[in-house]
Design brief:
The structure holds 2 protein chains of 2 kinds. Chain A has 12 helices and 3 strands; from the N terminus they run αααβββααααααααα. By secondary structure, chain A is mainly alpha-helical. Chain A has a 3-stranded antiparallel β-sheet. Chain A is flat, with a radius of gyration of 32 Å. Residues about 375-380 of chain A have low confidence and may be disordered. By secondary structure, chain B is mostly helical. The chains are: A mainly alpha, B mainly alpha. Chains A and B meet through α7, α10 and α12 of A and α1, α5, α6, α7 and α9 of B.
Chain lengths: ~375, ~300
């Protein structure tokens, strides 16, 4: 075959371009970049996961709003105004687009008063329909601009007001603050108790482990709903008792997980090496084993946060939530549920916020799990 | 199991009795009436004696006490017997609907891993798990019942069977979401693991198609862990139905628990707590037994 020579002919090569390897270049010199640690690696993987990044920013946004949004308008979260009860939402700018324009349907109104500017100020009536005559009186359902109707044309309640005339925008984000506080604190306490308990049980093993795990089994077999209910009944409602009620059984999961991790890790060579060098038990547990077990623990804690938000709202729904003046998202939902049919906006905003928050937390936790454990990737 | 039940009964009895507030704190009742009530209900005796009377009532006479506030002077047992079937109906129905859907979704997602259908299902699963059941219930109630009028807004008792079904439809639907997502998510994870295992390779080698191999070999192996999560799920949904029952005004056990607590109807509260405890313990028990039936390895282990 008439092949092209693979190498150029010898005489075309420059002698000077050939250098002995050992003289100026040593293998490994190119690898002096910083070693990529476990957390940096996980962070890089997390950043490539688009849904998690979006979820992260949603969480940051909600936290920011929860911290600062109550100051965005002049209304206090417990400021009652009996002249402005159950106002529909109205937002500057958006009202011109026909949404959130403060309109509200008043049913069964006498049509004869529609021209009366005493009852219906000018511009109050947007439309009316369903005209019918009952017992000689003509009545209709009329859609009014409720703000004009009440002579409050220059006021804006962005999410409306509740049955006591409290601004729901402020209340919603004060509620989000409370909900987040309860969720984060209870998860944090759970994690700390669970990790210490599980670490001790897993590290020492044997009898200690057996007794400690029996305790968790007995505690865990009591139905959650019974424990939480009785706990709150006993200690009364309030932020602290809700947090504690979520802790009573919540730490068990973290304890079991930590124990399993410790069982796996405590037989590793590096633990043996550290022990040989005379490291004490406490240092072994917290300095050597725990950092290696932390990935799944963080993930579990993140997954537990939406669970705690849900549990708190759930308790609020069954009337065991936060005390009256203060609100949480669950309390707002439970209050709004009572007049869902006539005032759906009162349900809509808290429902949207809690759903958004829980979806964001779950997505973020999923991304975190994938980041910490690449072998679990895509395994839901 | 019995020990746990006993512990819960004891603790709840003591806690609830020690709770502040009582129906008898009524200024209209004279001291004489109060004293008479106290001695009849053994309220003036130490708590241990009260507990003894309570347990004796249950075991000797089958007497769970009498409701004092919710439905005055109706035996608690009767109230519960009337309400438990309703709660169980909606819970079992939602579970029965959820499991096939969840299994189908999980299987599809696992077989089409990392394809669009998998991504859609995984996204739905996250939404379903995240969306609180009461939010979904409110949405259903507002749009399907109120706006569209497809189903009654609240539960309607004492009507024809068909109407009863339609009024239970929305609560059941609201309860279905979470189990569907849980089953789908779990099954997907399990199936993906099994599909990649060696025996699946063997099944393919001997000439089965991917579908046959999945149905006959992978699926059975994945069913085991599924049972493991489905049964405890029942107790979970039962807890969740508390709120759903309240939203749809269903006269089940959930609603009465809250009412009983807030109106100091102690005998009723204790009975409901016992009911929940018994259900959750029962599910654990059933699961242990079923494990032996489904998984031959457990049976073999027990015989040795």
């Amino acid at each position: 075959m008439n092949e092209r020579p693979i190498l150029p002919a010898e005489d075309t090569l420059d002698k000077e371009s050939f250098v002995f390897v050992g003289e100026s270049w040593s293998p490994g010199a190119e690898f002096n970049a910083k070693p990529v640690g476990f957390f940096r690696d996980a962070l890089a993987r997390l950043c490539r996961n688009v849904p998690s990044v979006i979820a992260f920013f949603v969480i940051v946004l909600v936290v920011f709003l929860a911290l600062f949004a109550p100051g965005f308008n002049a209304y206090g979260f417990n400021e009652q105004n009996t002249d402005r009860v159950n106002m529909p939402p109205r937002v500057q700018g958006l009202e011109n687009l026909g949404i959130l324009n403060g309109s509200r349907v008043l049913t069964n109104r006498r049509t004869e008063y529609f021209g009366d500017t005493e009852k219906y100020p000018e511009g109050a009536i947007l439309s009316y329909d369903n005209i019918r005559t009952i017992r000689g009186v003509e009545i209709a359902d009329v859609t009014v601009n409720y703000y004009v109707f009440l002579g409050a044309d220059d006021e804006y309640y962005w999410m409306g007001t509740d049955y006591l005339g409290r601004d729901l925008f402020t209340r919603l984000f004060v509620g989000a603050r409370v909900s987040l506080l309860i969720a984060v604190l209870s998860v944090l306490i759970n994690a700390v108790i669970g990790v210490v308990y599980g670490a001790v049980a897993g590290y020492y093993g044997g009898k200690v482990d057996m007794i400690m795990m029996r305790i968790t089994e007995v505690l865990g077999s009591v139905p959650n709903i019974a424990v939480v209910t009785m706990f709150i009944l006993f200690f009364g409602t309030g932020i602290l008792s809700v947090i504690l009620a979520l802790v009573v059984q919540g730490w068990i999961h973290a304890a079991r997980l930590t124990r399993a991790q410790f069982y796996r890790l405590k037989v590793r060579e590096y633990v043996l090496a550290a022990r040989t060098l005379g490291t004490g038990d406490r240092a072994l547990i917290f300095r050597h084993i725990l950092p290696n077990a932390i990935g799944p623990l963080i993930t579990t804690a993140m997954i537990a946060i939406p669970g705690a938000i849900f549990a708190e709202s759930f308790l609020a729904y069954i009337g065991l939530g936060i005390k009256a003046p203060l609100a949480s998202i669950g309390v707002l939902l439970a209050e709004a549920q009572k007049n869902l049919m006539s005032l759906p906006y009162q349900t809509f905003f808290p429902a949207a916020l809690i759903s958004l928050l829980m979806i964001a937390f779950n997505m973020f936790a999923n991304g975190l799990r994938d980041a910490f454990d690449p072998s679990q990737r895509g395994k839901d | 199991m019995c020990l746990t039940l006993f512990l819960v009964v004891s603790i709840s009895f003591v806690v609830i009795r020690l709770m502040p507030g009582s129906v008898y704190e009524n200024p209209e009742l004279s001291t004489a009436v109060l004293e008479a009530l106290d001695s009849k209900m053994h309220l003036n005796e130490p708590i241990l004696t009260q507990y003894y009377y309570y347990l004796r009532g249950i075991f000797v006479d089958g007497d769970w006490g009498v409701s004092v506030a919710i439905e005055p002077s109706v035996p608690v047992f009767k109230i519960l017997m009337r309400r438990i079937p309703i709660s169980l109906t909606i819970n079992l129905a939602s579970l029965l609907i959820a499991i096939p859907i969840g299994i189908a979704m999980g299987t599809v997602a696992a077989l089409r891993k990392n394809k669009p259908s998998d991504h859609i299902i995984s996204f739905l699963v996250v939404i379903f798990i995240s969306l609180p059941s009461f939010v979904f219930a409110s949405l259903l109630q507002y749009f399907m019942a109120y706006k569209l009028g497809w189903a009654p807004i609240i539960y309607q008792p004492s009507v024809s069977f068909l109407e009863k079904i339609s009024s239970l439809m929305l609560p059941v639907l609201a309860l279905t979401l979470w189990p569907v997502a849980t089953v789908a998510r779990y099954l997907r994870g399990e199936l993906i693991e099994t599909v990649n295992s060696d025996f699946m390779l063997l099944a393919r080698t001997k000439g089965l198609t991917q579908g046959e191999a999945t149905v006959h070999h992978a699926f059975r192996n994945s069913c085991l862990p599924i049972v493991h999560i489905i049964i405890p799920m029942f107790a979970n949904i039962l807890g969740g139905s508390l709120v759903i029952e309240q939203i749809f005004a269903i006269p089940g056990v959930g609603g009465i628990m809250i009412d009983a607590i807030s109106s100091y109807d102690h005998a009723l509260t204790i009975a409901v707590v016992i009911f929940y405890t018994a259900i959750s313990l029962l599910t654990i028990f059933v699961m242990d037994i079923l494990y032996g039936v489904i998984d031959p390895r457990v049976r073999m282990g027990a015989k040795k």
